[in-house]
Structures are given as C-alpha cells and as structure tokens.
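Researcher: Re-running this chain for the archive, since the previous output was lost when a drive failed. Same request as before.
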Amino acid sequence: MDHKALALEMRGLREQVAGITDTAVAAADGLLIAADTADSIDPEGLAALAAAGLGLARRTAEATDRGALHRTVTYGSHGCAAFYAVGNTALMVVLGDEGLDVERLHRATQPTLDRIGSILTQKAPEGV
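Model: Regenerated structure tokens:
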C-alpha cells in the first residue's frame, strides 16, 4: 500500500476545504491505516470509534432499507466529524471546526474517496 499517496490525498482534501482540522483512513474493523491529525487526537482511538459509528450507521441504513451507506456526520459544539465509507473495507474520517462548510466537504470528498479506494486496492509489486 502506498502510504505516501494516502497522505497526499488527505492533505489535498484539507487544502481544498477550509475548516478541515484532521483526517484519517482506517480499515472497516477500526485499524488505523493513515492519519493526519493534531497531537491532541489519538488516531488509533479515532479510527476505532469511527469504525464503530460507521458500522452502526451502516446497519441502520440496511435495516431501514435506505440502501448502501455513504457517510454519517456528527455535530458538536466545536465542529463536526464526518465518517465516509470507502467501499466495504475502509473508511475516512474528517474532523472540522465550526467554520467547515459540510456540503462543500461532501462534494469535494467523493473524488478523494475514489482515489483512496484505488490506493487501498492496489497490489504491491512482487518482491516488495
């Protein structure tokens, strides 16, 4: 897996959308794959919580016949946390401050999610 390419995607999204403070990519089971977070954030804990939250949202969407889950957003008094499904095997977490335009985030995130999905499914060259 190309961790440098993942870091570039996360950083690129942060540069596109004002208000993003932290990003992370994790496996659907909550294991951290890559993170671009502040020192005050525990990236492993964030990955685990995001996977649990996205799992509950995915089950809710299925149980209520809403189709495949794309994302879920949690709003707090100091900003929000958006959790995006990357296929069925991974997720991306985006944390934002109070000024984050969530609709802009959703529009900007889809191409990034597609590229992250491709990076995660690339096979390593033989001998590596």
